[in-house]
Amino acid sequence: MTEQKKSGSAKLWGGRFAEGTAASVEAFTASIHYDYRLYKYDIAGSKAHAAMLAASGILSREELTAITDGLTTIEVEITEGTFHFRRELEDIHMNIEKALVERIGPAGAKLHSGRSRNDQVALDFKLYLRDQCDEVITLLDGIRRAFVRLARKYLGKIMPGYTHLQRAQPVQIAHHLLAYYEMFGRDRERMVDCRKRLNLCPLGCAALAGTGLPIDRQQVAESLGFAGVTANSMDTSGDRDFAIEFTSGCTMIQLHLSRLSEELVLWSSQEFDFVNISDKFCTGSSIMPQKKNPDIPELIRGKSGRVVGSLMALITLVKGLPLTYNRDLQEDKEPVFDAVDTISACLAIMAELLENLTFKTERMAAATQKGCMTATDLADYLVLKNVPFREAHGIVGRAVAYCLEKGCELPDLSIAELGRFSETIGKDVYEVLSVEGSVNSRISTGGTGIQRVEEALLAAEKQLGIGQ
Ligand code: ARG
Prior knowledge:
The chain is built from 20 helices and six strands. It is mainly alpha-helical. It folds into three domains: 22-113, Orthogonal Bundle (Fumarase C, Chain B, domain 1); 118-155 and 167-362, Fumarase/aspartase (Central domain) (Fumarase C, Chain A, domain 2, Up-down Bundle), CATH 1.20.200.10; 367-452, Fumarase/aspartase (C-terminal domain) (Ribonucleotide Reductase Protein R1, domain 1), CATH 1.10.40.
């Protein structure tokens, strides 16, 4: 029976089937409605594969030209939105291949020599993710730049540092901001690392076992900018580690964005009143005219669920799969697409929001004056006078309790009052009890002392190529 005589005969794999595919099955198995996104990579991969087939003598020069030109035409049509995608052709690979055969005839039918959709889809996905790594890195640099600009602007200004969301020790606003610079810096490294590890070409592994045709995998890899080829064809056709790694990197980014969002929501509340998020980045309430809501950070925080969900979907997807390709793996793309769309949108809008954020430095500084925030400094003062730290901790704890009872702060206590807790305390104590003294004393590496923060800021500016 020829392909033409069967119902549903458009299939590129239709040869061994006596009956056409049920419409319900076509609907259920199709992935074209989302994997069309890979078209550029599919076409780039096919062109590289065709060039290699020509070099190996499997395609003639004329056939190669026809294939390359045909693929270029298809790419233009898809980009311009005039290409007709067919669901019965399942996915992007078969939509493009079928269109090519229809346009250029038998030469198009030779393109799939020495490859399978299994290595083809792995190739497309890797090429796509390689570009996404680069784009995410650019977005991460954008948000890191925003933090560095803010840190420079507020260098020297002080705020309460918190642990357990309780006032703990005074810190520099710039130090707090540069903490995020570090976090997004690690996210950047993860993307660089992910890109490096995924940058090995899977094409030529064919279905699972390699091919007997005289292909040159190295040539394809080089022409597509890969660092080399994957080593084991069976590993390659079922490997989705790279997608999981990428999505895990996305998840970490989203978690960092979510923590930042939480702080912005808190800080913009009347209770904290530490920052002003520009009107352009807030929305109002349909019923309460006085409201100005921090919807952007709230939505970013809320979108964490979907990114974490994507990671869960992927890791669950591969758990329990026997080696090489299983159709389950078609479920790998949507979570990745959703994760990267989500973090890209969140990174971009958060960078913009940060550029439009102002800190209420006086309120932040005032907040450091309450809560005995220099208590640790007093303990350290005693340590330097040879009081064992645990004993010093107890002394200061009692002094703090006294302040709480009296309704005052540590620097408000007279030397006589302080002397009741320890004879070691002298007049020089007031230097360490001031908030400025406290911050500036913290000159240990990575600490909040002005010198350290300035060094960190300069290093960050240098890294990002920001001149002053
Ligand atoms: N659409 C498929 C996917 O995304 C392509 C690979 C299909 N391979 C196969 N042998 N059915 O995984």
